[in-house]
Amino acid sequence: MALFIALVICLSCLIFLFLWNRSYAQGKLPPGPTPLPIIGNILQIDTKNINESLLKLAKVYGPVFTVYLGPQRTVVLHGHKAVKEALVERGEEFSGRGSFPLAEHISQGSGVVFSNGELWKQTRRFSLTVLRDMGMGKKTVEDRIQEEALCLVEEFRKTNGSPCDPSFLLGCAPCNVICSIIFQSRFEYNDKKLLTLLDYFNENFRIISTPWIQLYNAFPFLIHYLPGSHNELFKNVAEQKKFVLEQIKEHQESLDLNNPRDFIDYFLIKMEKEKDNKQSVYTMDNLVVTIWDMFSAGTETTASTLKYGLLLLLKHPEVTAKVQEEIDRVVGRDRSPCMRDRSRMPYTDATIHEIQRYIDLVPNNLPHMVNQDIKFRDYFIPKGTTIFVSLTSVLRDEKEFPNPDKFDPSHFLDANGNFKRSDYFMPFSAGKRVCVGEGLARMELFLLLTHILQHFTLKPLVDPKDIDTSPLVSGFGTVPPSYKLCFIPV
Predict the structure, then answer these.
(1) What is the 3-state secondary structure (H, E, C) of the chain?
(2) Which residue in 81, 167, 194, 286 has the fewest CB atoms around it within 10 Å?
């Protein structure tokens, strides 16, 4: 047995070295540290602080370099110029979804986030069309968010100014907005189904951001069969998919082909129209994963941004005061904030942008992949190579954002106090793979935060200077720390 294992290891090393040498023979790969057989450069990367490791490598090898995460070849893009050149100027070539073994096990090539090829193109196009038809960026979706914002305000009012952890309630609002789009319904905040869904989302985001999952993605052929938190995540996702299937079944029983009510209806009608097309991407599996993608991307990311945003506003009461002054001046107390107000509220808009820039929610983006052999900056990148995009290196660029490690809304204001756009603002990524729900997320962040600050003074439990805004975990995602505050009615 020991001899067999030794032979397998030796053979794996030989294959790895053969593939590595062949890639160099085809062309010059971007430079990078020499990988070890099987484990690659994993010993040179701190899985607890990948950003710092990539920054150090970028200083040595430049803005485009190669690392091996286990046996997987990965090209890293570091800095605004390299990221923009790849994702925007050469977006089609870099539009593939790179290797993410954990997600691949869950999605099985379906959905809108982790799919590739024609299935991805058609599903993405369909999703954008339906969201637009349902009012994405229009009055109808704005109405839904405003109604949910008022529900959120009432829930915070019930705390009677006593200390509370806002995490759960901040998750309810975006989750209900997504529910209204997908199911045409919402949950009461004490509904057990909603409570369970949010628990799954919170736990999944925490798990996927841990070093263990970084190891899983580097060595899925080994880690998958070991005990660990990935198994807990798979169980959570299975329960979430079960919930989605129940909703789909209810829709099938009441479907009116001439009167779609929500996203599920639109998809079921498309399935019916293409039922004789054996190559159709409109299948039940794809519908389930697409809905799971929308829930996961649309709930936890917005909830985490809101949670981190309130913590930063507690830490910086001078910023909060300016935002509330602008809300009082532009909106007042007799009506709800609306999207038309945003153009007249530059400081509030800048503050929300700064929250997203500062928290750096998904530091290295979801992995991309090149769809063909390409030449990039005199380097050769073979078809199928995974591309890591360091969004941190863009959002924390010192030239664009002076003192990038400081929370400062003036990063998005000009000398006259007007809102200043920046090409370096890429929390939703950029190019062909930019977040499908970017418009919805922007609207939610503005309306939910302004409603909260219109009705409450945020009171910390400690001196603001003693508030620690360091993330609980920073891996795939940046998980905000737990905290409590008091919502004092204005």
Answers:
(1) CHHHHHHHHHHHHHHHHHHHHHHHHHCCCCCCCCCECCCECHHHCCCCCHHHHHHHHHHHHCCEEEEEECCEEEEEEECHHHHHHHHHHCCCCCCEECCCHHHHHHHCCCCCCCCCHHHHHHHHHHHHHHHHHCCCCCHHHHHHHHHHHHHHHHHHHCCCCCCECCHHHHHHHHHHHHHHHHCCCCCCCCCHHHHHHHHHHHHHHHHHCCHHHHHHHHCHHHHCCCCCHHHHHHHHHHHHHHHHHHHHHHHHHHCCCCCCCCHHHHHHHHHHHCCCCCCCCCCHHHHHHHHHHHHHHHHHHHHHHHHHHHHHHHHCHHHHHHHHHHHHHHCCCCCCCCHHHHHHCHHHHHHHHHHHHHHCCCCCCCCEECCCCEEECCEEECCCCEEEEEHHHHHCCCCCCCCCCCCCHHHHECCCCCECCCCCCCCCCCHHHCCCCHHHHHHHHHHHHHHHHHHEEEEECCCHHHCCCCCCEECCCEECCCCCEEEEEC
(2) 81
The neighbour count for residue 120, using CB atoms within 10 Å, is: 22
pLDDT, tens digit (0-9, with 9 covering 90-100), for 407-427: 999 999 999 999 999 999 999
Q: How do strand 72-78 and strand 386-390 relate by DSSP bridges?
A: parallel
Decide if pLDDT at 22 tops 50.
no
Mark the binding-site residues, compressed into ranges: 435
> What residues have CB less than 8 Å from 127, skipping those under 6 apart?
112, 263, 290, 294, 436
User: Amino acid identity of 185?
Assistant: S
Q: Which domains does the chain have, with CATH numbers?
A: 49-489 (1.10.630.10)
Residue list, annotated binding site for heme:
435
Across the range 15-20, mean pLDDT stands at: 49
Q: Is the whole-model pTM more than 0.85?
A: yes
User: Is the separation of the CB atoms in 57 and 65 below 8 Å?
Assistant: yes
